[in-house]
Amino acid sequence: MIGLENASVAFGHNVIFRDVSFEVPVGRTMAILGPNGRGKTTLLRALLGFQPLKTGRRTAPKIAGYVPQHGASQAKLSGLDVVVMGHAAQIGLFGQPGRDDLEAAEEALEIVGATHLAELRYDRMSGGQRQMILIARALATGSPALVFDEPTSALDLGNQAKTLDLLNMLRARRDRAILFTTHDPNHALAAADDVLLMMPGGHEVNGTVEEMIVPEALARLYGVDMRWVDLTGPESGARKAVIPAFAGREFS
Amino acid sequence: MSDVTAGARLHGGSGALRAGVFVGLFAALFAALIFAIGAGRFAVSPGRIAEIIFAWMAAPSAPLENIDERIVLLVRMPRVLIAAVSGAALAVGGAALQGVFRNPLVSQQVLGISQGAAFGGALAILLGYAGVTLLGLAFIFGLAALVIVGLLARINGRTEIVTVILSGMVVGALFSALVSVVQFVADPNTSLPAIVYWLMGSFSTATWARFWLGLPGLAIGIVAVWLFRYRLNLLALEDTEARSLGVNPDRERWFIFIATALMTATSVAIAGIIGWIGLVIPHAARILVGEDHRVLIPASAILGATYLTFVDTLARTLTSAEIPLGVLTALIGAPVFGLLLRRHFSKANQP
Prior knowledge:
The complex is a heterodimer. Chain A has helices spanning 40-48, 79-84, 88-91, 99-111, 127-140, 157-173, 185-191, 209-212, 215-222; strands at 2-11, 14-24, 29-33, 55-59, 65-67, 145-148, 177-182, 194-199, 203-208, 226-232, 238-244. By secondary structure, chain A is α/β, with parallel strands linked by helices. The longest helix of chain A is centred in the middle third of the chain and has 17 residues, at 157-173. The radius of gyration of chain A is 19 Å and the shape is globular. Chain B is built from 15 helices and two strands. Chain B has a two-stranded antiparallel sheet with strand order 1-2. In chain B, a hairpin with a 2-residue loop joins β1 (154-155) and β2 (158-159). The radius of gyration of chain B is 21 Å and the shape is globular. The relative contact order of chain B is 0.15. At the A-B interface, α2 and α3 of A face α1, α10 and α11 of B.
């Protein structure tokens, strides 16, 4: 389980958030939505213990599988080398990665379907490939919690779809507590069970996707009108998406 | 497709290639050691060197009757070995610092450790100490310089690379000034010449006694960094990332700092400031074996030992008078480093 209880973070007098409480049990996925600069990344940092809390408590395993937005970008190491780093805690201060560590890394690469990236140089990979490697590394930690910082924000549509599929696949396994931040409500629809909205002006609400991803709440969140649209999914199932009213163009 | 071959060079199939590189490095080190022991005004052939060494190993306490035996075993061996171990230590220290600071431009001198150690040593000579006390003071002030840099550069709990390098320059300048103060107050008839001579840097005073004095500090530092070699890969990550993997960068960095300060101070204590090794050698090693510290650290050690052995031999054989070693390492190091830098950035800017 991973979560916060009445947590506040402030830099001097600048309060980032106050009295935030939520929890993500093992087997569920939560999406955190909020406008830019509202403190999504700070919330993740606080949750992971990188940012001291002013008040409140955090619950998190000692090591959480964390997928940073941009990671290890200059490491001239192979994909496998980067994934093996997920096992750092097991390898220890003076240890070298051994057979077990390599096996854990290869298994993680297989889960994310990135075995073909094992031998490539990480610093020469595309953004989407790096994302897969970093997700595999988070899985390789063996942690019951996975935390993604804006996993889709820097990716093109094809890689967004890939990442969302992967998030969904991990969600369907129901063996981890998963948390990700995003600014696209459709990504929460696609891959989350629960949603935390970081409202402008500084209060937070959370609930299930059905309760939270509604045009009214999102309109307050982003300050733009939102609409439901009906569309046909890739497997010709009926889907609903929520998009801002400014989307599209008037045709006469 | 070029990505695949580049990746393969790093893993799996690279084993044979990498082993070949290490065999080559060891061969170069061996050749440098033999060359260094043989070269000089009294030249000794490699065959004769082997003969002398085997005879000595068979009977270490037998009296040395021939002049070439005395030259090889009492004069050149300690000097060559201490130069080799110092070279290895300086190169390993540089490689470790560059990993921890995620910056290929830092070195013991840029961070002020060398200058701090020089002040400690000069202070010891001023107060009339030598040997272990000199070494101890050099270590204390080398480490102090590093601590001050760390504290100056840490702003709001974050340590930016640029502030580290600027702080290092400030602290280095401060300790250089303090060395001048020591020289100013030193007795011009006794301690001043000793300080000046020591600071110029040279292995010419090497004896077995000095070798055994310096070996523990250098060897402990090298072994410590070598044991930490995989951890260095993790410390080279962003702090947040490293911490999420269960690494404590703030604390573990100090392990490297203390090991580096120990090695730098020891080498400064026995041979003065020898610059550029910690900067140039890790770069060359990276070109040969890549950036994985598991192979970079041993490769830097062997290459550093080879290089300093060779340069020290040049220093004492090129002219009839001995050229100060620091001058020679800078004369070679600066242009080589310039070339490496150009190469580094022209490669980095390729798509």
